[in-house]
Amino acid sequence: MKLSQVLSSINQVEKSKFISCLDKLCTSALPNDKQLARSVSKIDGQIKNASGSEITSLFALVSCIYKESIQEQIAMSDAQIGLLINILTRDGNCIARISWIEHLYNKEWKDLNDSAIEIRSLIEQSKDSEDMCRGRQLAIYHDCFSVAFLNDEKINREARITDDERSILNTLADRLGISMDEASAIEHLINPIPQNNVLEGLNSLREMGVLFINRKRSEVLVADEVVAILNELQGKELANKHTLRILRSLSDAELSNVFKHYNKKIRGVERYKKISEIIHSRIPIRNILQRDIFNPGEALNQRKDRLKSLIHDLDLNVDKIGATLDDRINVIVSKLNNSTNQEFECLSAAGFKELYVTLQTHFPDFESLLRAEFELEESEDIDTEKLRALSITPVDILYLLSNEQVKVVRDKMSLSKRGNPRQLILESFANANEKLIENYPALARRDLAALRKAAIDISEAEVGVKFEEITKEIFENLNLVVDEDVRKSINTAKDKADIVISLSDDDVIIGEAKTFKNGDFAKYATTSRQVKSYVNRCENQGKRVAQVLIIAPSFSQDFVESAEMDTEINISLLEAEGLKMIYDAYRSRRNPKFSAKLLTKGGLLKAELIAKNI
Fold first, then answer.
1. CB-based burial of residue 451 (10 Å sphere; 0-12 exposed, 13-18 middle, 19+ buried)?
2. Whose CA is closest to 33, among 11, 4, 62?
3. Which residues 6+ apart lie within 8 Å of 103 measured at CB?
4. How distant is the alpha carbon of residue 495 from its chain centre?
5. Which helix (H) or strand (E) holds 503?
6. What is the pLDDT of residues 89-100, one digit of tens each?
7. Residue 569: φ, ψ to 5°
8. What H or E segment, with its residue span, contains residue 530?
């Protein structure tokens, strides 16, 4: 979840620690940063009174200083903080209940402790050996780590590992073929990680400004921008979900080569277990792509050619693939790290939902797979809105399936067998929604005959939901902010608002999408009662409703007059044909000019005039 979204979902008290940290960083940076000084002056120097968008902008300007500050504080903290950061930065854990984080921490601690016991046994067995066996390699790293950690005590200082010492130890581990999870287990042998007091650790991270705690829901929230910084501090160039994509694209022999480099058992280990083990071992992706997947002595040109084909296999749209091996690795890492927004845009909210339902249909255990891969709590409901909040994209969920499973979905959907199967599946859902947008007025009129003539297979019962979903997609394509978080917060079991468009942190437009089969839509009394209840609930949450927007196939004269004379709320009316006209005009312009304020004029909106001026 983006920082701006996190800030809009919590209260002022829950923001206070983060804002306090941001205030200190801004104060220290102001004398040397003119752009920051201008931004702070716009809010009269009172960061505590800044809006969510202003806080997000300030954070972006001081993110480098923030990173340095967090790095210093983590270095001074105990080993528990490191383990918590490792858990919180994993895919799916940036929003989670405190009790679930405690569960994950206990599980991680047990796995780490079991690994440490196993490593200790290997070290003891190698004491009398002069060969460079596995136990001997682990013993060398153990001794070096012990010296680095305990050296401080000789000069009467608290024992800890500095950043310089850690970088040297990381290089040593790499040369000895010791993975990051094994290095963590050895560290646990020397500097044991506490098994309890997880809440205390979370509160320490909150004091640092790393996370937020929603007291009402007992929920921990870590903004995407902060997760990216924490990953950098851990030396983690790619999120696990992106590493999974790369590993899915490798051959069995290449995965085995990675295992060989880290002295792991290969015989009898299935492909999916190799992939899982590599991810769990936290092997740096740069090492995998630069060295580990290749046979010893493989020529540089062969390695470069393999990365070129990998870029194609991953379907990465790049202008230049780079000349050197490092250049090509940089292209892969950069493109994957910046892929989230683009991947959400490739499918509408409705398309994402249909993809998710289709995968569940073809694979009944798909939800269990999703929970296991992204460590999602069993009691938490999973839908595409939840996945979007966790920054899990349509492409991410397709890569949860093996290459063979994806081909099964492709074949069941009767798609072409040529090309990338995952891309073909995505394109099929995108095309389905484009058809519905093209026939949007017929959808509004519930004209099933016209829809079927356009090769759209839809039942009468589905029309209302589809009309709402496609209306949202049109607004998203008009570059408006369709705010599902606010919509869910004002909905009740009985009354559910269709659409909420955020104009700013505090101002919203409430949208209501109405289908009607015969003639003009005329149910003003019922509709006005609905939208007025939504307005009241919005205002009770501190939002200002700038306008209510009702979309329907057409409106009766009485409906239009009643809306214009309503003194309680501001209502705009927009015919479905008119919204389609605005959408077409927007898409046809190279640099369209459209503002949500055009929807707040009141009364029956003149779509032709709006379309003409886009």
1. buried
2. 62
3. 377
4. 29
5. none
6. 999 999 999 999
7. -140, 155
8. helix 524-540
- Long-range Cβ contacts of 587-596 (<8 Å, 24+ apart): 587/477, 589/614, 594/478, 594/479, 596/480, 596/501, 596/503, 596/509
CB 495 within 8 A of CB 533: yes
Taking the C-alpha atoms of residue 497 and residue 532, their distance in angstroms, rounded to an integer, is 11
What is the reported pLDDT for 245?
95
Residue carrying structure tokens 């990365």: 307
Q: How confident is the model at residue 8 (pLDDT cuts 50, 70, 90)?
A: confident
Contact 361, 376 (CB under 8 A): no
Provide the token pair at 159: 């024992």
- pLDDT tier at 380, thresholds 50, 70, 90: confident
Q: CA Rg, the chain, in Å?
A: 28
Q: What is the mean pLDDT of residues 169-196?
A: 92
Q: Is 8:505 a contact under the CB 8 Å cutoff?
A: yes
Q: What is the dihedral of CA 40, 41, 44, 47, to 10 degrees?
A: 0
Give the SS3 label for residue 578: helix
Contacts of 590 (CB under 8 A, 6+ apart): none
Q: Which has the minimum average pLDDT: 117-121, 178-182, 457-461?
A: 457-461
Tracing tokens 């120097």 back to the chain, one arrives at 45
Q: In the structure, what pLDDT confidence band is assigned to residue 44 with cuts at 50, 70 and 90?
A: low
Task: DSSP for 196-253, please give it.
Answer: S-HHHHHHHHHHHTS-EEETTTTEEE--HHHHHHHHHHTT--S-HHHHHHHHHTS-HH
Instruction: Say whether pLDDT at 244 is over 90.
Output: yes
Task: Please tell me the distance from the alpha carbon of residue 272 to that of residue 610, in angstroms, as a whole number.
Answer: 54
Confidence at residue 533, expressed as pLDDT on a 0 to 100 scale? 92
CB distance 77 to 203 below 8 Å? no
Would you tell me how many other CB atoms lie within 10 Å of the CB of residue 230? Answer: 21
Residue by residue, what is the 3-state secondary structure of 339-403? CHHHHHHCCCHHHHHHHHHHHHHHCCCHHHHHHHHHCCCCCCCCCHHHHHHCCCCHHHHHCCCCH
Phi-psi region of 285 (alpha: psi -120 to 50; beta: other; left: phi over 0): alpha
Residues 507, 519: Cα–Cα separation, whole Å? 34
Burial class (CB in 10 A: 0-12, 13-18, 19+), 558: exposed
CA distances 75 to 79, 146, 161, 225, 387, Å, are 9, 17, 7, 20, 32
pLDDT for the residue numbered 560: 95
Task: Please say if the pLDDT value at position 214 is more than 70.
Answer: yes
How many residues belong to the chain? 614
Contact present, 199 and 102 (Cβ < 8 Å): yes
List CB contacts of 419: < 8 A, sequence separation 6 or more: none
Residues 6+ apart with CB under 8 A from 50: 19, 43, 58
